[in-house]
Write a structure and sequence with these properties.
With 82 residues, the chain is mainly α. It is globular.
């Protein structure tokens, strides 16, 4: 199982945003179309973002959203995986 015990909230938020775009980050690493260091970069970028609370609220209310919000610093990188 892929996880980030040192940054669990950033992992949860990044994974949630990826799911909006139809991307399973753990599967992407296992299948080799995302390197572990690239995933580390996504998690680090999320952890450094000052909009974590906004992100969490957005994810809880996203319902059937199919696109990530523009405020996400990982938007372009994650959408490129979909």
């Amino acid at each position: 199982m892929i996880g980030f015990p040192e940054a669990p909230k950033a992992w949860w938020l990044t994974r949630g945003m990826a799911r909006i775009s139809g991307v399973n980050l753990a599967r992407a690493v296992v299948e080799g179309w995302l390197q572990r260091d690239e995933l580390d970069d996504l998690i680090s970028r999320c952890a450094a973002c000052s909009r974590g609370e906004l992100c969490e609220t957005w994810l809880m209310k996203s319902g059937s959203a199919q696109t990530m919000p523009d405020f996400c610093p990982n938007k372009a990188r994650i959408e490129a995986l979909s």
